[in-house]
Design a protein that fits this description.
Blueprint (H helix, E strand, L loop, with lengths): L9 E5 L4 E6 L10 E8 L12 E2 L12 E6 L7 E9 L12 E4 L8 E6 L3 E6 L9 E7 L12 E6 L3 E4 L7 E9 L9 E6 L1
Antiparallel strand pairs: 1-2, 2-5, 3-4, 3-6, 6-7, 8-9, 9-12, 10-11, 10-13, 13-14
Length: 202
């Protein structure tokens, strides 16, 4: 008798390049199942009919006793892309279960690059805008350096503000000095948009 089919695949979290999946380990009359065959398709929901052509996930998951939560993080994905996943399980006698529920989820898009709108001097006032974004509320990180910036995480960059607003005032500048500013947007920490840069001489 084959194992019972998994029926509750879900995805409790998603990012731009990773998706976290979970499901309940299935029942088998011989106890726990021996292995999972996990496959996925990109921008294609016909995983049952294309099963052998779907991407096989090389997983090191050792199935647990029935009705325990199993977890899988699928990485190296493309942003703003639909992924469809399904699972079949096998028991120690080689019996293979029916297909699990077919689950489709989209990775988040890369946040939009901020667009500098105005710069005012004295205290440096930066204002910017960003394109609409459907995968969460944007957070902006504004950094400053005394030398040209490569990224918002440069070792020589000072974080001036982390904000959901689109205007900041930097009152820590001094006169007759050149500063390099960078602005990025993000929803998940570490997954930043391309950086908008501006050079300001006070």
């Amino acid at each position: 008798t084959p194992p019972s089919a998994i029926s509750d695949i879900s995805a409790p979290s998603r990012r731009t390049r990773t998706i976290s999946f979970e499901w309940s380990s299935p029942f088998d009359n011989s106890g726990r199942v021996s292995s999972y065959e996990i496959r996925y398709l990109e921008n294609d929901t016909n995983i049952k009919t294309r099963w052998l052509n779907a991407n096989l996930i090389s997983n090191l998951i050792t199935p647990q006793n029935p009705n325990q939560k199993e977890f899988l993080v699928l990485g190296n994905l493309k942003p703003a892309t639909n992924y469809t996943i399904a699972i079949r399980s096998k028991d120690t006698k080689g019996n293979i279960s029916d297909f699990s529920n077919v689950f489709t989820i989209r990775t988040k898009a890369i946040p939009p690059k901020p667009k500098l709108v105005t710069v005012q001097f004295g205290s440096v006032i930066l204002s910017w805008s960003a394109d609409p974004y459907a995968d969460g509320s944007l957070i902006y990180r504004v950094v400053r350096s005394d030398s040209p910036l490569v990224s918002a995480t440069d070792a020589n960059a000072i974080v001036i503000a982390t904000t959901t607003q689109t205007t900041i005032i930097d009152s820590t500048v001094i006169s007759n000095k050149t500063y390099y500013y960078g602005i990025v947007s993000y929803v998940d920490e570490g997954e930043y948009s391309p950086m908008e840069t501006i050079i300001v001489t006070t």
